[in-house]
Design a protein that fits this description.
The complex is a heterodimer. Chain A has one domain. In chain A, about 70% of the residues lie in helices and about 0% in strands. Chain A contains 17 helices and no strands. Chain A is globular. Chain B folds into two domains: about 120 residues, no CATH class; about 35 residues, no CATH class. In chain B, helix 5 packs across helix 6. Chain B is extended, with a radius of gyration of 25 Å. The chains are: A mainly alpha, B mainly alpha.
Chain lengths: ~475, ~220
């Protein structure tokens, strides 16, 4: 073949021949040039296998332990006293517990989108971030799951949520979206866990083979399920992984759709809208990418992963955040318009109160955080600067929380009957629960980055130009 | 490098993975069995009482009507536990020196009631009304069993919600003529025919709303 005489493609890129082509048309490498198969494996596995744990990890872990302490204290108190500790009462029965549930579930969506949809769309840059994005999904679902479990008021009866042959001769109400939620979220948790674990099996085998520690060899060996890297293993692995990706794909849309039904099926003004599913899914994706950025930017700095999570990755995530952020902006506009266009006085009043009522500051903050701040991402300088990306992501994190506050408790404060209007504020137990669930999230995350490879080692190796050129020659 | 795992690990892992399905299934089966068993429902368990009162002796032996002691059964939620005075109506004259009845006489003399231990205990979140069931033609036997054959009283029915609902969903299978409510030995010859007739006659509704029984 004539191509043999030419240097490999990746060596052509920086030469003068292409100087006339504008920068933006030159494909950026997924892995920083200079990495080889060996350096990738060394770098990522050494983060886990090194003997000395960095001081920063201990500091972060200590912070997360404080959060865990707050969480345990709060849950303990709630189990003894009851959910009356929270600010919920008549007329607002869904407060911080549901806000935080939706917030966390939404955050989880980026992990599934990155791991499943971007995989099926052959977006290879996802490889650098999919492992910890999936971990983030799992931990976010764990934090989210706490809320409805306690919200029931008697968590020891939570198994009643599942249809099982009981001595009461009744089934759960299958016509209720709350019931669908049980299935949506538990399916989501199961599939995400399987996807994450199956994708990690070859890497667990790498760790098993490289660790000097006898106990570590045993534990990683158990996780690796006897992986030897034979062609048969790879064949089965690829099949399983693709199948799981196929299973996860609808979940990106279905889970938050069903979460939105919790509201849309009810008749409360401000909840009862048919376009809630796409609105919530877009919100979930923007929230998720904001959280991935929130985690990725400090992590790549702390563990010197700039070679793997390059500016290209950050920029792509910034673009997705911009696109979905604008969809959310559009949703707010449609929501307002539909309230006006419906001609329904209750619906109109609810939205009028959002802008002028006692919680108007939340709404102004929401518009600033979710509608204005993501527009920074139009500018390449902001989109490629880790600091600006991080700042924008924080705006979105806060904004998405505010969005759920504005939708959930605020709509309940202005019901159909003026005599049943009221106000809502979280108590310190609400805040304790919220900070505590962040603590749980961080706790799991710190354990994850210490004991498991946070970037997929074997998939990163396939991203090297050598691996791809090799593959093309044979095909 | 030596092997980390022995050859047997292959077998063990396969057995545990496939076995887990059966173990989980077995655990569910055991739990669902236990919650239906007398261990959990107290079905058929004779309670210890201050006096070993025999319904068999008083009902089938002597032919005393239920309402002689359980006076409130037709008018109130609670059928009523008789006061010691009711016992003494007879026992002032017969078995006056029986050692077994010493607690009854003591109670009568001191005015301190006998402390019977409850046999049919419903949860606090359920309310049950005897009078409506009696008025609509549900016999004592339907819930309490052949109490006229119990030397010591025990709970015949499981008192689970599915047991309540079995009748609330299909009252026509259990309803009897009002004049047979207190008849322990009544057996319907053609329940299929008279059941629906009685349901119409007594205007029995299938009450399965939550608030029928729960506050």
């Amino acid at each position: 073949m004539a191509e043999r005489d030419q240097p490999p493609l990746h060596e052509i890129r920086p030469t003068r021949q292409l100087e006339s082509v504008p920068d933006r048309f030159i494909p950026q490498p997924i892995v920083e040039p200079g990495h080889t198969f060996a350096t990738i494996t060394d770098h990522i596995s050494s983060i886990v296998l090194r003997k000395k744990t960095p001081l920063g990890w201990y500091l972060g872990f200590a912070v997360s332990l404080v959060g865990m302490f707050v969480l345990n204290l709060t849950i303990g108190k709630i189990l003894f006293v009851g959910v009356g500790l929270w600010g919920i009462n008549h007329p607002v029965g869904w407060g911080f517990d549901i806000i935080n549930f939706v917030w966390w579930i939404g955050i989880g969506h980026a992990g599934t989108l990155i791991s499943a949809i971007l995989l099926l769309l052959h977006q290879e840059w996802r490889t650098s971030i999919n492992r910890f994005a999936e971990a983030m999904t799992l931990f976010a679902v764990a934090s989210a799951g706490l809320y409805p479990a306690l919200h029931t008021g008697r968590p020891w009866f939570d198994y009643w949520l599942f249809p099982y042959p009981n001595t009461m001769a009744i089934w759960p109400q299958f016509r209720s979206p709350l019931m669908w939620d049980v299935f949506a979220v538990s399916t989501y948790a199961t599939v995400s866990l399987l996807f994450w674990y199956v994708g990690m099996v070859p890497d667990l085998a790498t760790l098993r083979d490289r660790t000097k520690n006898k106990f570590g060899r045993f534990i990683y060996g158990m996780g690796a399920l006897g992986w030897r890297g034979s062609a048969k293993h790879w064949h089965r692995y690829e099949h399983a992984y693709l199948l799981l990706a196929g299973l996860s794909t609808p979940l990106v849309l279905s889970v938050h759709t069903i979460v939105s039904f919790d509201f849309a099926v009810a008749q409360v003004p401000g909840w009862h809208a048919t376009f809630f599913p796409p609105y919530f899914v877009a919100g979930a994706v923007v929230a998720g990418f904001a959280m991935v950025l929130t985690l990725a930017i400090p992590l790549r700095k702390a563990f010197k992963l700039e070679g793997f999570i390059t500016t290209k990755h950050l920029e792509n995530m910034g673009k997705i955040m911009l696109a979905t952020g604008l969809m959310v902006f559009y949703s707010y506009a449609v929501e307002m318009f539909m309230a006006y266009y419906s001609g329904d006085p209750f619906e109109r009043y609810t939205f009028y109160t959002r802008v002028t009522g006692p919680y108007r500051h939340y709404w102004y903050m929401l518009i600033l955080c979710n509608c204005l701040a993501p527009n920074l991402m139009w500018v390449k300088r902001f989109r490629t600067s880790p600091m600006w990306l991080f700042i924008t992501a924080q705006f979105v994190n806060v904004g998405m929380w505010l969005e759920r506050f504005v939708i959930i408790p605020e709509s309940l404060t202005r019901d159909f009957l003026p005599s049943s209007w009221g106000t809502y504020h979280g108590t310190r137990w609400d805040w304790g629960m919220y900070l505590g669930s962040i603590g749980l999230f961080l706790f799991l995350l710190f354990l994850f980055i210490r004991f498991l490879p946070m970037i997929s080692i074997f998939e990163m190796r396939t991203m090297l130009p050598e691996a791809q050129a090799h593959g093309e020659e044979h095909s | 490098m030596a092997q980390i795992f022995h050859r047997s690990a292959n077998t063990i892992s396969r057995v545990t993975i496939f076995g887990a399905v059966f173990i989980v299934g077995l655990v569910f089966y055991l739990i669902s069995g236990i919650i239906r068993s007398p261990f959990f429902t107290n079905q058929g368990v004779e309670r210890e009482q201050p006096v070993p009162f025999s319904h068999q002796h008083h009902v089938s032996g002597l032919g005393i009507d239920c309402r002689y002691c359980h006076t409130a059964v037709e008018t109130s939620n609670f059928a009523g536990i008789p006061p010691t005075q009711t016992c003494m109506n007879c026992h002032a004259q017969i078995w006056t020196n029986a050692a077994m009845l010493e607690p009854v006489r003591l109670s009568y003399a001191t005015g301190r009631p006998l402390v019977w231990s409850r046999v049919h205990r419903l949860p606090d979140f359920v309310h049950f009304n005897h009078s409506i069931h009696v008025a609509k033609g549900i016999g004592c036997v339907s819930c309490h069993g052949r109490i006229d054959k119990m030397p010591l009283t025990y709970q015949e029915a499981p008192l689970t919600m599915q047991w309540c609902l079995a009748c609330h969903r299909h009252p026509e299978q259990f309803v009897r003529p009002r004049n047979q409510v207190f008849n322990m030995a009544y057996v319907a010859k053609d329940q299929d025919k008279i059941g629906p007739q009685l349901v119409r006659l007594y205007q029995i509704k299938k009450r399965t709303s939550c608030s029928t029984c729960h506050y």
